[in-house]
Amino acid sequence: MAKVLLENIKRKFNNVTAIEDISLEIPDGEFWVLVGPSGCGKSTILRTIAGLETATSGNLYIGDRLVNDVPARQRDIAMVFQNYALYPHMTVAENIAFGLQMRQVAPKTIKERVLTVARSLSLEHLLDRKPKQLSGGQQQRVALGRAIARQAQLFLLDEPLSNLDAQLRDDTRAELKQLHQQLGITTIYVTHDQVEAMTLADKIVVLNQGRIQQIGDPQSIYALPANEMVASFLGNPPMNILPAIYHGDNFNISGQILAIPPDLQEKLHLNSGESYNLGIRPEHFHLNQEQKEENSEGLFADVKVVEPLGRETLIRASLPGCSWFLNVQIGGNIRLHPGEKLNLQLDLNQLFVFNCQTGARIFPA
What is the pTM of this model? Predict the structure, then answer.
């Protein structure tokens, strides 16, 4: 096991900068997730740590060793890819044992370790099968088993669950978390799936356009995103972003007035007459079913789509004259239909204010 330190890592491909000024320190034994939209640089960071890409500038340490010029095979890492990369002519046991054999580990030790790993992943009854005889989830567990058996000081996982169906992905994600708790090996995991990031990570690194946007534990990032990109990326459904003009005691949102109580006005410190983007998560809307006339408080919206999800219902609604939609999450016992009008009350204690030009969070400060 080892800590990982990146100091001002930059990677350019010809004249295109894939990642820039990447600095972070992953403590020994922690599970960190790199997350962001496609093309944000997360896989480039992982491949640079693995030694499959060479940093254009900056320093990379694994443990206390500078590994900028150390070949991939000498970095003592185990990597699991999206496509599993199993040897089709080998059995499950032979695939798991392959890395140990390359390191010339004693046959008795290999046999014991293969059995131990197979038991931990519920693969012992599949040891004599070839990869083509396995399901996608079983193949993924074999790939994980091969990495675990090596007992490397660092695990790197590049979107390992993306080829699995929804239920199997959930099950394998839980197995991964349990395995990390048992093994305690430093793990860096790349995904574009924010649910995986939230459920697996000790710390999340949110990336966009090759730069780090925010680093923190999942709940802290969700509760206090650094900017509009992070706010709208983490959360399912995502945070609503509402263009608004501030007038001291209210926000004008597409012609509708959202009154601001005096205690909140004192905290905002905004310039009257300027435009801002307001952020509110879907679960922080409340339906006022008693007042549906447009002269009452709240925002008025038209129901466009209703998605029942069991214990909750997701509503897609639109404000009059707006091309964008609001995501509203309500209790599953409330019945609504497309075309109905909603009176939406916002929990102003959960309101965010972002700079229109930079996307930076202005409030809460």
Answer: 0.89
